[in-house]
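Exercise: predict the fold of this chain.
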Amino acid sequence: MQEKGSISIHTENIFPIIKKFLYSDHEIFLRELVSNAVDATQKLKRLSSLGEFAGEVGDTKIKVSVNEADKTITISDRGIGMTGEEIKKYINQIAFSGATEFVEKYKDKGDDKQIIGHFGLGFYSAFMVSSMVEIKTLSYKEGSEAALWECDGSTEFEIRPTEKTERGSDVILHIADDSTEFLEKARIKGILSKYCKFLPVEIEFDGEVINNTTPLWTKSPNELKDEDYIKFYQDLYPFSEEPLFWIHLNVDYPFNLTGILYFPKLKNDFEFQRNKIQLYSRQVFITDEVKDVVPEFLMLLNGIIDSPDIPLNVSRSFLQADANVKKIDSYITKKVADKLAELHKQDEEGFAKKWNDIGLFVKYGMISNDKFYEKAKDFCLYKNTDGQYFTLDKYKEHIQVNQQDKSENLVALYATDVRQQDTYIQSAKRKGYDVLEFSHPIDSHFIQMLESKVEKFTLKRVDADTADKLIDKDTKTESLLSAEKEKEVQEIFESAINNKDRKVTLEPMSPEELPVNITQPEFMRRMKDMQAMGGGGGMSFMGNMPEMLSVAVNSNHPLIQKILNAPDETVKKDLAKQAYDLALLSQGMLTGADLTNFIQRSVNLSVK
């Protein structure tokens, strides 16, 4: 047949729209054309399996070639090919998808999931980089004649007979002057590696097969070993450490989803490793921006998700809001939680050893996702300053006897910097209290979340008050000083410190405690911790507020009596300032000239 005509579209401007707006990334053309070739090949295999094609399937390798001299790229397949009439139907009527019709026709005759094509516009992405496109094709149907279709990017086309002896299609792109970068072999190889490295039909470029047709996620977990998963991970992320463990996803109802998610060793700087999960649709790479499919906290994972049911726009470049996306989101969250629960149940000791690597992930998930919280609350671990790990229920049992306040609330104490807060930790331990370690910036948010969800349970930083007041048990220690002497000591310390933002109080404590304790209210500490993490809404003003430290003088410490008995006011003030600076030093708050002066004053006092 020979014919000339106009492509059936609703606007003369379809090609500029395709070129400038529909496909924002021009390299997509190769993904679309190779995917179409895979489609044609899969259809032929399907027809052969159904007995509707009696010929030899033979070599079905798809070949991509670049001819720099002719300025052409050719994509050749040995699929079902097309007749002249089918060209008119599938190519000239834009947005009519041959794959859709094929699936509909054969949907009751077995598996139709191998057909990739969804988008009738995919072929026209070729005009993003081409001044002319040719299709030379021969249908698998007996007695068919080869046909050549030509179009120069306008709405005009020509179909005429041609010479072709092998079944299938050759799509020949005559590369435009503004797209000659695509004539570089390295550029084409890079695109094929990005989008086509796991396609289910062999793709050959420059004499080399560039894809793995049966990637790990397409196989049954029963036929795979740990070393298979680790090798695949190393292929995906060649410069990464071995993953901690992984989850093999495989579901076909109520949606189709396969894939493998890996738990990497997370860095404590809490940087999101975005673009580490790749999204595929029937083994075609779509995007590594998966925030609409995967909950944000799971963005800390690595791996691959493959689903034909994820709704994409016509260019496959962007996800679209859909009920299936929410179902997939929920399913993946559940699978991850179930895997962690299983690991904890099977080997609590081994799970605890991994906690430093996965604790950040679990806590972030509990903060940001209620469904994950409900499952994770049973395997989330809490580490104390002695290096012991507890679930929340076991920890509540652990502190039940000694850390209940007068209102019968359990009070869990915690440290954010074990070394810097050691003085306070030791004071708490002398009273028989246990202290948890919450040393990551996210912990300020985690603590807030925990208190909002767990009844009659509160957390208090170990240096938020003196040891006697951390847990209010309505008990009182008697002071060894009279009210008159207490007032005198308070005035000495206020004069020595000389800072209106430091509130001085006298408190009777054990003589074993420091003579001076410097504390900051729990509320103020939390606000500053959350502000440092970048949270807390409009709390940026906290960084400009004074420290608002409380100075608690231990009226029962022997040094206080020594101060009172000192020979003159200067020595009294020096001793008081020394005790105050010692308390600052224990918190790491004494630096620079203040530290130098403290050392000098210590020397002077020691020789008096």
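Check your answer against the key: The two ends are 115 Å apart (CA to CA).
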